[in-house]
TrEMBL record:
InterPro entries according to UniProt: MobA-like_NTP_Trfase, Molybde_CF_guanTrfase, Nucleotide-diphossugar_trans
Family assignment from sequence similarity: Belongs to the MobA family.
Record function comment: Transfers a GMP moiety from GTP to Mo-molybdopterin (Mo-MPT) cofactor (Moco or molybdenum cofactor) to form Mo-molybdopterin guanine dinucleotide (Mo-MGD) cofactor.
Protein name (record): Molybdenum cofactor guanylyltransferase
GO CC terms of this entry: cytoplasm
Keyword line: Cytoplasm, GTP-binding, Magnesium, Metal-binding, Molybdenum cofactor biosynthesis, Nucleotide-binding, Transferase
Catalytic function, reaction form: Mo-molybdopterin + GTP + H(+) = Mo-molybdopterin guanine dinucleotide + diphosphate
Domain writeup: The N-terminal domain determines nucleotide recognition and specific binding, while the C-terminal domain determines the specific binding to the target protein.
Residues that bind GTP: 7-9, 25, 71, 102
Chief localisation class: cytoplasm
Amino acid sequence: MFDGLILAGGQSRRMRSADAPEADKGLMPWRGEPLAAHACRYLRAQGADAVWISANRHPEDYAAYGTVVRDDPDHAQCGPLAGVLAGLRRARSPWLFVLPVDVVRQPGDLAARLAAAARPDRPAYARTSDGPHPLCLMAHHDLADGLQAFLDAGGRQVQGWLRSCGAVAVDFSDADALINLNTPEDWDRWS
């Protein structure tokens, strides 16, 4: 049993343009619906008991897809790990399956394989032939205190936190899996 967390709290800076100066990637339509809708459907299909969305802007829009959680004000400038911490603190299940809102082409067995590799004291994250996808991860709620200590000590790098708790990488060697839509060019290529 696990809850799902969609990370949609970023600023979407690389997606901004003269036509879209205030872009919010998770709400942008991709293949007919917002990315948040795709991510929510995927998490539910993977077996998530509840879907949480880390969103610091447009919470009323994201609420259509799951329960919105905001970063703790003390960690407002800590990047995506603040969203992970908020999800770990609020999840009802012992496990939290994390997925960035801009990751598409998810493997059908992502949650199952991450869950098989994770332990309460050791998260598991995805790696493809293109490199690590450290925010596609399965983490136990017991990791929340350690993550908070990492952030309170000034840590911000996701891979730094994963190294600090002995996280294991799970190989998904399909080069077309776990594609990030970070830029307008990515968006065009994978639409």
